[in-house]
Amino acid sequence: MGFLKLLFLISFFFFFHSCLAARKLTALVQDQPMPLQYHNGPLLSGTISLNLIWYGSFKPSQRAIVTDFLTSLSSPSQSQPSVSTWWKATEKYYSLAHTKSSNSNKKPLLLTLGKQILDENYSLGKSLSSKQIQRLAAMGEKKYAINIVLTASDVAVESFCMSRCGTHGASPKVAKEEGRFAYIWVGNSETQCPGQCAWPFHQPIYGPQTPPLVGPNNDVGLDGMVINIASLLAGTVTNPFGNGFFQGPKDAPLEAASACPGVYGKGAYPGYAGELLVDQSTGASYNANGANGRKYLLPALIDPTTSSCSTLLLFLISCFFHSCLAARKLTALVQDQPMPLQYHNGPLLSGTVSLNLIWYGSFKPSQRAIVTDFLTSLSSLSQSQPSVATWWKTTEKYYSLAHTKSSNSNRKPLLLTLGKQILDENCSLGKSLSSKQIQRLAAMGEKKYAINIVLTASDVAVEGFCMSRCGTHGASPKVAKGGRFAYIWVGNSETQCPGQCAWPFHQPMYGPQTAPLVGPNNDVGLDGMVINIASLLAGTVTNPFGNGFFQGPKDAPLEAASACPGVYGKGAYPGYAGELLVDQSTGASYNANGGNGRKYLLPALMDPTTQKTDCFSPRPTQASTIPQRSTSQWNHLSQPYLVRLLQALPASHRHRFPHLPLISIPEPTISLHMGFCMSRCGTHGASPKVAKEEGRFAYIWVGNSETQCPGQCAWPFHQPIYGPQTPPLVGPNNDVGLDGMVINIASLLAGTVTNPFGNGFFQGAKDAPLEAASACPGVYGKGAYPGYAGELLVDQSTGASYNANGANGRKYLLPALIDLTTSSCSTLTLASKYKSLTIDENIVSSISTNGKLAPLN
């Protein structure tokens, strides 16, 4: 009894202290300013040449887009709003530095276009390290220069598409007479990661899914490069040597433009670039006029005098009257942009076309049945409504529209039939495939009147998979009248990137963090594959040879389904799939019925007859319900995790609870873990089951993401490359990497003790489970929503955000845990509701012996 009294006192103190913390939290919550601290170092001044090193293949027209932008920086003879007006915002940094520095004799900055060096033969190869980028930069001028290295779309650069779209730095400090140069590197992301580094001109694979804008120069890669060059150029002149204006850690600083991620116009929010000008003749979006009639989209810059993001429009309004006229013009031109899929007069697939499946790798018969049932459902009318067949009928509108625009009206209606299936379970070409090998596999199907669908298993790596795509489609080369075939490839993302290619059945690592839905076939990988097959199949029949219906560049087209990313039901918005049907017996979400009693979730299709983003999705014939988590969906979740906190009691008391597990964690090793920054920030598991006397241990691995992917694994202490773009918080220990590691350790530790051997508490697939903390992604405080961590405590002396105090005066930010009694996410500030809870020793013992938790030995 004495021990129980002690335990009660501990519990009462914990919960009473939490009540005080909760009240204190509300008092301290405030909008955090984002001041860029001046570290007293020099800013670039005087006449500086901008020298370009073009590495790889760039067309002259592409080079002109960049050179016109750079010459526009110092050219005042442009229509307003202009590039040069945007650049004038950097003068505020110089004025502020002048007031804080004793050196006031610096000349004003003047940027001039210098020499251009073409390295079209890839002298250092097509895979470059950071040191090789510096070596290329050194080919430019050695002083009074910013040397800009631009790599072509087929060049891989260390960390490109993983944690950065470009970078800037400076040559080593040498003797004064030799001088130094600054450098910038930016890559062309068009074929590698346009959704990451060319947004908003390409829809992102992850995060807020809004239709991409039309680029002002009609080149997704180059329009994206201009944005990144502009951002890094502003950072270079205001923080050239790492001791100018920045906020946060020196190795991962927030600078003039990177402190305002995703902001391009007034009213911007995650997934929306803001109010922009629209070219009436091309539909292109822009916010700045440049030299030679160019138009550009430029990022907002932080105003160092107000610590707020200043867009070009707001800067104009604050500067001069002429800009007020431009502002009125801007408002008049702002409109919902149409996203018509243009018909390029090419053939659409017609007649009887066989769907042939090439299964590459290991698939269970039950998994293959999910796909074949979907494909046979496309042409089967004997299904409950809403049905797969009804969804597919939307493609008929494309044929009707093509019929009115084409002279060839003798085409037969399209009829899809299930053809042959080929099993390559032994992975004849290995487990790492190139795009050419995918085409080789596709050729194993029929040679004409066919769509050959290559499906790769979850342990097969494919070029570009999880980096820039979840699948693709194409066609065999044009030959003599012998015919052609179309092909589709889709990968099973379950173990590689389910948060990217199987959303909304898995929570994304990046972007809007909403609870994943239950898949209609209870297989995250295959339910995700069906979505991607459906999307690519719609694109294949309406744009089989690259000259059908699409919008944007031919190499990265928006097609029937990809023009409606992330939309599955009415009312969809970034992070929310829309109103869907819910199977009352399984809790699964779906929007279409298929053959053999199957249910599927299918993507919305663009309606080509409305010439706007009027995306069709199957309409439920009964009252739609927004999927909600119910207690029944959490399998056997019945007792609160709070009981497990007893494991933290002193060892002297643990003998009172012999059934509680004792988990030992091995010393961490330094290694690059497969999947890090791709699909995970860490993981946990257990050693193999052996003889009873030997025992077992559980283990956790977490990586330090500071230099590799801080926007993925250290949010909210670093702004993400993808998804909701809100200013990052200041970490409580002033170390982005380690503060992020604590979050991931805490999350995995909670998962480890409650699901140590894969048969404890979890929801979803065993190989990709949702556990105690991972079921509440991105939630740290009350009122959290995608891109906002919630109400947090703020340290008044450092500005750091936290929600928990630790030993030795430490402060930490810890993730929310799912409350088993309510199936809702419980933040630390909500703990006060448990203040009357008592813990009974018999409850602990019964829980420990009923199979929910078991001793490790």
UniProtKB/TrEMBL annotation:
The keyword Secreted applies. Keywords: Apoplast, Secreted, Signal. The keyword Secreted applies. GO terms for cellular component: apoplast. It is found in: Secreted, Extracellular space, Apoplast. Its main location: secreted. Residues 1-21 form the signal peptide. Belongs to the EXORDIUM family. This is Protein EXORDIUM. It comes from Cinnamomum micranthum f. kanehirae.
